[in-house]
Design brief:
The chain is an alpha/beta fold and 654 residues long. The radius of gyration is 25 Å and the shape is globular.
Length: 654
């Protein structure tokens, strides 16, 4: 399988004598040819009725299920997954196909397909994430260049074979195995690429964003899901047996090779001794062996590079006296035994260790708010777990922790499509959430009104900093009546922007799930928004949508103060400056979203500067009307069966 480049063998990470298959990698010429063919085929595909595109995805789902045994074998032999994980992998892939097929019609109105999308997927979910990316791009009328992870191309190829068999035209879906140098780099640098859907490291996501800023259309899409340092808090009211069960699953299932996996466990000191004793005992019962064995709990890590890096980290931590417990691992293959280390907190961990390694810290009962602040300060925001029986504590932490997926009294892995939309914020991703209601809309393009840039007084960086409002002014970011307050002051002005903003359901919205589980989705403000117009009408519309989402808003454009006069001085976090911003000032400005509806040259100059920044990727919003661009999605999953104890005492505990 593959292209016209180097030929290599794909080996089983649990047994290197097992040759799973052979791969012929793609070359730079293969990339160029695939993009050319995809561009040619995409227009006809976009004109295919959405119902027909959705029907193809449903047929593909049926074919995936009909070939379940082959996928299970590939997931185990190529990716080192246990049989349990292989079943979950297939289920998630099929869920993506059917969910996106059912949601596709909702993304169509007033939008068009973007063009050719590059889908770059990881090795830890070689079927589920691969399929989710590709299916979302295809059902929304785009052509796809699919680049699987170097370690797991065979699984991706089989998925593509079945998508072709289901009816996806070959000129619309292309499969290019290879590394970053031969495939990833040339693919993201091709100016014909209209967007990239990527799952991987934060560092690579930044590289892709910088490349798109240089060579792609100025409003090219980037969806990046980039992992994180995920924490769980267990307080003294938690059910210890349940907490231990969920800690072990969250930290060690899939050999810890999930972006959602638990990395730092905070245990209240009052229960530390008992909980650690139970945790080490539960870990000792894990069977670390070849995942093809049905009793296997923990398989290998993906390759020798991963094994060596994790092993060296564990060696150093053990030498520093941090070891609490560890298991033995098989000598064959690339196995790493589960380890538990003691740390002072999440601030001590320099980077994510992508394997079966758990760090444990303790906290005093009255320091839980400090723990949340410490977790937030790291800038990651993917998953978070909480074990407690105090309802008020649950709600307070949901309101204050900055993560995309919050799990209460259950494990923090295994998000279900449609029930727990998955994706992070900050350093953990750009959004929107995969398997959620906003995802497909990102693969479509709304009307972009390329307005002319006007001349005006240059606004300095210091002046921008001085005038950027705090979203917490007047508790605006948490108020539930923002829409009605805006309507009261606008009195019919900005009707299109106001109607669009009011059309978002900020929630919480109940999502489906089994008995004993409560799932919900809510929308939260992104933070600080800079609205650059470039004219009074555009900056007014941008500011309305950003304010409606609960953000702090600074509007800068010629005529901005007059345009926003009805909103200024009304207790909302909004300021306006007449003038223009030199894009270079944006490299150092504390901002979370920039809105500008201008021509390609103006947009590109702003995006290039934003792409240079360290930290989270800052979204550039080009469409005048795009209310969902100003929000974050947060999913909450609660195991409602976790009950017991003196309810009145627990209610009073806060």
């Amino acid at each position: 399988m593959g292209g016209n480049g180097a030929r290599r063998e794909a080996l089983n990470p649990a047994n290197h004598s097992d040759i799973v298959g052979e791969v012929v990698e793609a070359t730079k010429d293969d990339v160029a040819n695939a993009v050319e063919a995809a561009v040619s085929g995409q227009v006809r595909w976009s004109l295919t009725p959405v119902a027909e595109r959705a029907a193809i995805l449903r047929r593909a789902a049926d074919l995936f299920e009909a070939n379940a045994g082959e996928f299970f074998a590939l997931c185990t032999r190529e990716a080192g997954k246990t049989l349990t994980d292989g079943i979950a992998e297939l289920r998630e892939a099929v869920d993506f196909l059917r969910y996106y097929a059912s949601e596709a019609q909702l993304a169509e109105p007033h939008t068009r397909a973007r063009g050719v999308i590059a889908c770059i997927s990881p090795w830890n979910f070689p079927l589920a994430i691969f399929t989710g990316q590709v299916a979302a791009a295809l059902v929304t009328g785009n052509a796809v260049i699919a680049k699987p992870a170097e370690q797991t191309p065979l699984t991706g190829q089989r998925a593509v074979d079945l998508l072709w068999e289901a009816g996806i035209p070959r000129e619309v879906l292309h499969f290019l195995p290879g590394d970053g140098e031969s495939v990833g780099g040339p693919l993201t640098a091709d100016p014909r690429i209209a967007g990239v859907c990527f799952t991987g490291s934060t560092e690579v996501a930044r590289i892709i964003e910088r490349q798109l800023a240089e060579t792609a259309s100025a409003d090219a899409m980037l969806i990046a899901e980039t992992g994180g340092l995920n924490a769980m808090i267990v307080d003294s009211t938690a059910l210890p047996e349940q907490a231990v069960r969920d800690i072990v699953a969250s930290a060690f299932q899939s050999a810890g090779q999930r972006c959602s996996a638990l990395r730092v466990l905070y245990v209240q000191k009052d229960i530390e001794t008992k909980l650690i004793e139970m945790l080490t005992g539960a870990m000792a019962s894990l069977n670390v062996c070849n995942p093809a064995v049905i009793s296997s709990d923990v398989g290998p890590v993906i390759d020798e590079g991963a094994r060596a890096g994790i092993a060296e980290y564990c060696r150093k931590m053990e030498a520093n006296g941090r070891l609490i417990a560890k298991l033995d691992a098989p000598q064959d293959g690339t196995f790493i035994a589960p380890h538990i280390f003691r740390v002072s907190g999440i601030g001590e961990i320099e980077r994510e260790i992508f394997g079966p390694v758990l760090h444990v810290a303790t906290f005093e009962a009255d320091q839980i708010d400090n723990v949340i602040a410490e977790i937030n300060s790291r800038g990651y925001g993917l998953t978070f777990g909480l074990h407690t029986r105090i309802d008020a504590r649950v709600q307070r932490i949901i309101d204050t922790v900055h993560v995309g997926n919050i799990y209460v009294n259950r494990n923090q892995i295994g998000a279900i499509v449609g029930s727990q939309p998955f994706g992070g914020e900050g350093l953990s991703g750009t959004g929107p959430k995969a398997g959620g209601p906003l995802y497909l809309k990102r693969f479509r393009q709304g009307e972009v009104d390329a307005r002319a840039m006007a001349e005006g007084e240059a606004v300095t960086l210091q002046r921008l900093r001085d005038h950027m409002p705090d979203p917490a002014i007047g508790k605006w970011s948490t108020r539930q009546d923002r829409i009605s307050v805006l309507r009261k002051h606008l009195r019919g002005k900005g009707g299109d922007a106001m109607a669009a903003a009011a059309g978002l359901d900020f929630g919480p919205v109940d999502l489906p799930g089994p008995t004993g589980e409560a799932n919900s989705l809510l929308l939260a403000p992104r933070g600080r928004v800079l609205c650059l117009g470039p004219d009074p009408q555009a900056v007014f519309a941008q500011a309305i949508q950003a304010l409606a989402a609960g953000n702090g808003v600074l509007a800068v454009a010629p005529g901005a103060r007059t345009a926003l006069q009805v909103l200024l001085g009304k207790g909302m976090p909004v300021e306006a400056i007449d003038g223009v911003v030199d894009p270079q000032a944006l490299e150092k400005l504390a901002v979370d979203v920039v809105a500008l509806s201008a021509d390609q040259d103006a947009l590109r100059s702003v995006r290039r500067v934003l792409a240079k920044r360290e930290g989270p990727i800052v979204r550039l919003v080009a469409a005048v009307i795009n209310p969902s661009a100003y929000v974050l999605e947060r999913a909450v999953c609660v195991d409602t069966t976790a009950a017991g104890g003196n309810a009145s005492l627990l209610a009073a505990a806060e």
